[in-house]
């Protein structure tokens, strides 16, 4: 059997990662009674990903994550493998997850799930052969055989009984899976899934080379002990030192578009960075940011010692926006603070 989550396409990398964690938890519940496999929905057409001129659809997960590591937590396959093994580009059942039209009821909270009329306009339409067409990550030949809407209130595993009992479909897609909540946020399963989401090796290598060359940071010097197999890795708190630099993730666009007033001005951010550098006696600062070109120019003037991963055109084409986000996160994660 195949199960498959999907998030609305215009969301960021981190939300997608968070939804993966929730669905992994659902999968673990299903695996207690039946063999299910999670088909990883290809990446592409995400809100944060805006490099023009590079077609960014149908991107397999292996471009960003290490599949063997994911597979040590739950069984997963790429969409291409699903296509090859399922005998055609068909998804038997699409469930669009939504809330309840009547909203929250006063009184006790209960987990529930019911088949209900679709609240929002359906993003799928029937073609002349009665198949459902819609956005399937750039796979235009993919079609759905049946679409229906489920109102959900509760954690990911609330869907399990429906998948186990109510449908006989061999492949099920859960659209808008972000409507499900975490089963046990912060519990053992949650952390195991997070740890299994190891970034793809080729991106880690790029990040490590950059750390070494521009930030005097290596695993030996920083005392970061890394094992390829996350299940074998024992995290001893406080042993890793981190590289001799400050890691800063400066988010601009989301906030500006959301008209948030508590977004620090660039001047404010630079002041904060300087005081942190002083406090930790560091000289270098690595900055990951989605700021626009003019803001970056201003930032360079205000903070000339700033180090950024500035991809060449070839690197952009090779790693894509998602890969660059991973490289940035990898370098930031190795900072002293
Ligand atoms: C699933 O099946 C049960 C038993 O037939 C039914 O009561 C329930 O409403 C169904 N749930 C959904 C979401 O279709
Ligand atoms: C489509 O799926 C819904 C929900 O499982 C089901 O009630 C309905 O009978 C299905 N329609 C067809 C044509 O199979």
From TrEMBL:
The catalysed reaction is:
L-seryl-[protein] + GDP-beta-L-fucose = 3-O-(alpha-L-fucosyl)-L-seryl-[protein] + GDP + H(+); L-threonyl-[protein] + GDP-beta-L-fucose = 3-O-(alpha-L-fucosyl)-L-threonyl-[protein] + GDP + H(+)
Question: What UniProt keywords apply to this chain's record, in alphabetical order?
Answer: Carbohydrate metabolism, Disulfide bond, Endoplasmic reticulum, Fucose metabolism, Glycoprotein, Glycosyltransferase, Golgi apparatus, Signal, Transferase
* Cellular component annotations (GO), alphabetically ordered: endoplasmic reticulum membrane; Golgi apparatus
Q: What is the enzyme's class at the highest EC level?
A: transferase
Q: Name one GO molecular function term.
A: peptide-O-fucosyltransferase activity
Question: Annotated pathway, please?
Answer: Protein modification; protein glycosylation
> What main location does UniProt list?
endoplasmic reticulum
UniProt key word Glycoprotein: yes
EC number(s) from the headed UniProt entry: 2.4.1.221
Annotated compartments: Endoplasmic reticulum; Golgi apparatus
What Gene3D superfamilies would the database entry show? 3.40.50.11340, 3.40.50.11350
The Gene Ontology biological process annotation of the record reads: fucose metabolic process
Please give the InterPro entries that the UniProt record associates with this protein: GDP-Fuc_O-FucTrfase (IPR019378), OFUT2-like (IPR045130)
Name a Pfam family for this protein: O-FucT
Q: In UniProt terms, what function does this protein have?
A: Catalyzes the reaction that attaches fucose through an O-glycosidic linkage to a conserved serine or threonine residue in the consensus sequence C1-X-X-S/T-C2 of thrombospondin type I repeats (TSRs) where C1 and C2 are the first and second cysteines of the repeat, respectively. O-fucosylates members of several protein families including the ADAMTS, the thrombospondin (TSP) and spondin families. Required for the proper secretion of ADAMTS family members such as ADAMTSL1 and ADAMTS13.
Protein family (similarity comment) = Belongs to the glycosyltransferase 68 family.
Database matches in PANTHER family: GDP-FUCOSE PROTEIN O-FUCOSYLTRANSFERASE 2
The protein depicted here goes by the name: GDP-fucose protein O-fucosyltransferase 2
């Amino acid at each position: 059997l195949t199960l498959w989550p999907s998030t609305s396409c215009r969301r960021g990398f981190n939300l997608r990662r968070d939804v993966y964690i929730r669905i992994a938890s659902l999968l673990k519940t299903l695996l207690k009674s039946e063999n299910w496999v999670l088909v990883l929905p290809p990446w592409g057409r995400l809100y944060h990903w805006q490099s023009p001129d590079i077609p960014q659809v149908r991107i397999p997960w292996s471009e960003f994550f290490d599949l063997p590591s994911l597979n040590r937590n739950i069984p997963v396959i790429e969409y291409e493998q699903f296509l090859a093994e399922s005998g055609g580009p068909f998804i038997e059942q699409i469930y669009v997850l939504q809330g309840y039209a009547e909203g929250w009821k006063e009184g006790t909270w209960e987990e529930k799930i019911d088949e209900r009329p679709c609240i929002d306009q359906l993003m799928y339409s029937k073609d002349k052969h009665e198949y459902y067409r819609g956005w399937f990550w750039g796979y235009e030949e993919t079609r759905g055989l049946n679409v229906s809407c489920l109102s959900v209130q509760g954690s990911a595993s609330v869907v399990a009984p429906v998948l186990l009992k109510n449908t006989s479909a061999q492949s099920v897609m859960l659209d808008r899976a972000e409507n499900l909540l975490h089963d046990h946020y912060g519990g053992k399963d949650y952390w195991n899934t997070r740890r299994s989401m190891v970034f793809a090796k080729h991106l880690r290598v790029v990040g490590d080379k950059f750390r070494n060359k521009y930030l005097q940071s290596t695993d030996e010097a920083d005392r970061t002990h890394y094992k390829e197999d996350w299940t074998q890795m024992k995290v001893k708190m406080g042993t890793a030192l981190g590289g001799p630099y400050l890691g800063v993730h400066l988010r601009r666009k989301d906030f500006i578009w959301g008209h948030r007033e508590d977004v620090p001005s660039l001047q404010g951010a630079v002041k904060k960075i300087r005081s942190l550098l002083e406090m930790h006696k560091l000289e270098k600062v690595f900055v990951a940011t989605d700021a626009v070109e003019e803001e970056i120019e201003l930032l360079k003037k205000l903070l000339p010692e700033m180090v950024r991963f500035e991809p060449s055109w070839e690197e952009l084409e090779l790693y894509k926006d998602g890969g660059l986000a991973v490289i940035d996160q990898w370098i930031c994660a190795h900072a002293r603070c």
